[in-house]
Amino acid sequence: MLLIALALLSSWAATAQPVSVHAAVEGQEFFLGESFTFQVQVQGDNRPQLPDTSVIRDFTVKKLGGRNNSSKSVSMVNGRVTRKETRGYIFNYKLTPKRIGRLTIPPIQVVAGGKRMATRPVPIVVREAEKVSDSKLHMTVSRPSCFVGEPITLTLTWFFAQDINNVEFAVPALDLPQFDLVLEEPQIDRKKRYHRLQVGTHQLIAEQGRAQLGGKTHATLKFSVILIPTATGTFPLPKSTVVAKVLVGYRDARRSSRQSMFNDFFGSTRQAVHKKIVVPSNAVTITVKDVPAAGRPAGFAGHIGKYAISARAAPTDVSVGDPITLTVSIGGPDYLDRVELPPLHLQAELTKNFKIPEERATGKIEGKMKVFTQTVRALHADVVEIPALELPYFDTTKSTYATARSKAIPITVKGTRVVTADDAEGTGAVAPAGRALKAWGSGILHNYDELNVLRDQRHGPATWLQSPKWIALLGAPPACYFALLFGVLWFRRRHSDPLAARARQAAREFRRSTKPISLAFAEDEAGGHAALLEALRAYFGSKLGTAAGAITFRDVAARLEESGVNGDVLQRLQTLFEQCEASTFAGGAGQHIPAEELLTQSRALVDELEGALR
Q1: Within 10 A of 600 (CB to CB), how many other CB atoms are there?
Q2: Residue 494 phi, psi dihedral angles, 5° rounding
Q3: Helix 567-585 to helix 553-562 angle, to the nearest 10 degrees?
Q4: Which of 154, 267, 270, 293 is deepest in the core (most CB within 10 A)?
């Protein structure tokens, strides 16, 4: 045996693998706004550096993570053992074209095996999306003509009539260099439904509703963003698109290996039939003009739109040098986040009678106003009012400069008095020598001249029981002892049965383990389903006192029926198991439920099961 082993070792051979990089896409032709998978495949190194995708200009890029692509194999031919080892790594991205035409994914540089290499360029053909009769994407702006720095609202409304899933929006206008993008969280109405969308590299919240289109009622998804132009000119906004899978019908099919084994539990054999659609929006053009230099006020600080200003002060009865809190409210434009307090230290009428700090306070948005607070101090006792505050602005409705003014605030200012040592002692004028002593009731000379101010300060056991502090001090040790005793007894009783303890914590552990699954869905949908499936198995393993292992719906259905779980809950639980298993083991076959809705359903099911399995 030793001789044979030596012979095998002498004939052992390993193949060396050169390092190379390649680019791969799932197709060559796509519609504008349609996303596709792009891979950077590294061979010969399973720990390459992150590729540089900043050179990709004509596509929005979303990282989908990477995975190791290494393998090992051993073969023996005529007594010669050959060991083959391949190393590799795959980076996954989702690209969305920004314009139509013949585009090119440029070479992507990667450092692998200590060398810098680049992929070959990949040509892509992007076509205009075909119109869909019962679906429309409408893009509007609040003003087609505006001035530099004037916020405008871009709104997209998608009308659709069928059930949808796998929705992806492409809005190239969000990444135009001539505009600053501002994303604001909408005010949530609990009576409405909202969806969080991933639009390129941005997350937006869309409101679901209903509206008329072509005389028919359609479901709608609507979201808005704010664009602030930074340059002048005429800018045609690129068309936006939405890609989705719509339900076009059902078909009956015999059970196959790709169908769930649980379909026959309730006798369901229908399969949903989906169709991918790409819906383009209308074209929109924005003309941006610069504010004129002629007639610009000296205190103009870039406020563009139509503004109003008001002020209030407190206190209004003060002495010279006392702080006065000045509260200034500014309103007018729809977007107030970038509105700032005008420089009060440059307003001559105000600085003539008041000391104004140069630092300007940050404001706080309250409803349709932005509120600022500023401290001012009167310089002399002749001041009778805080003058009107001025806010120069450029009125875009009239294309001219204007000034908003607040109302003057009447105040009373008193002069100051020098404080002497006699004031501090409470004596007033000094008494002449030889004057009789008297009791003082103020200042640091305050004294007492009556015997009733003396207190009984004797101490002893008899006085302890009359004092709440002594009673609390004497009773604290036995109270702590009994509290600790009862706590230990409760803890021992609660943990005397480990299986029962696991069952009590099962729902809490399920909710804790499903919190990070949303991120897993975003990076890898199959991985998200696999994580949710493992969480379900762990829950039923703890709740039913069995090993989690590879628990299926059939393993728990009988136990749940015995516990009184109704058929509706069982059917929803079966659907949940089906989708997770289909995505994990069958490449996504079967019914598809959006990730967030799937997580919501799973948590609701666990809450319902908790009541039946107590």
Answers
A1: 12
A2: -70, -30
A3: 170
A4: 154
Q: Quick one: average pLDDT of 175-202?
A: 86
Q: How many CB atoms lie within 10 A of CB 94?
A: 17
Q: How many CB atoms lie within 10 A of CB 276?
A: 11
CA quadruple 494, 496, 497, 502: dihedral positive or negative? positive
Nearest to 147 by CA among 298, 374, 300, 371: 300
> What six digits make up the tokens of 538?
């762990």
CA 187 to each of CA 105, 152, 153, 205, 208: distance values in angstroms, whole numbers, following the listed order: 40, 18, 16, 10, 14
Quick one: angle between helices 498-514 and 525-544, nearest 10? Answer: 160
**Confidence band (pLDDT; 50, 70, 90) for 336?**
confident
Architecture of domain 309-414: Sandwich (2.60)
Tokens at 402, concatenated: 């204007």
Residue 585 confidence class, pLDDT cut points 50, 70, 90: low
Q: Where are the CATH 1.20.120 domain residues in the chain?
A: 498-612
Q: Are 305 and 148 in contact (CB under 8 A)?
A: no
Tell me, letter by letter, the H, E, C secondary structure of 204-271: EEEEEEEEEECCEEEEEEEEEEEEEECCCEEEEECCCEEEEEEEEEEEECCCCCCCCCCHHHCCCCEE
Taking only the tens place, the pLDDT of each residue in 9-39 is 444 444 557 899 999 998 888 888 788 899 9
Question: Closest Cα to residue 43, out of 16, 72, 22?
Answer: 22
Task: List strand residue ranges (DSSP E) for 148-201, in order.
Answer: 152-160, 164-170, 179-182, 193-199
C-beta of residue 205 within 8 angstroms of C-beta of residue 195: yes
Per-residue confidence (pLDDT) for residue 430, from 0 to 100: 47
Over residues 203-211, the mean pLDDT reads 91
For the CA atoms of the chain, what is the radius of gyration? Answer: 38
Instruction: Please give the single-letter amino acid code of residue 362.
Output: T
CATH class of 2-127: mainly beta
Query: Are 19 and 113 in contact, with CB atoms under 8 Å apart?
Result: yes
Helix (H, G, I), strand (E, B) or coil at 277: strand
> Shortest CA distance to 136 belongs to which of 236, 246, 278?
278
The boundaries of every CATH 2.60.40 domain in the chain are 2-127, 136-288, 309-414
Q: Does the structural domain 498-612 have CATH classification 1.20.120?
A: yes
Q: Using the structure block, give the residue that is written with the tokens 């000391």.
A: 355
For 136-288, the fitting CATH number among 2.30.30, 3.40.30, 3.40.50, 2.60.40 is: 2.60.40
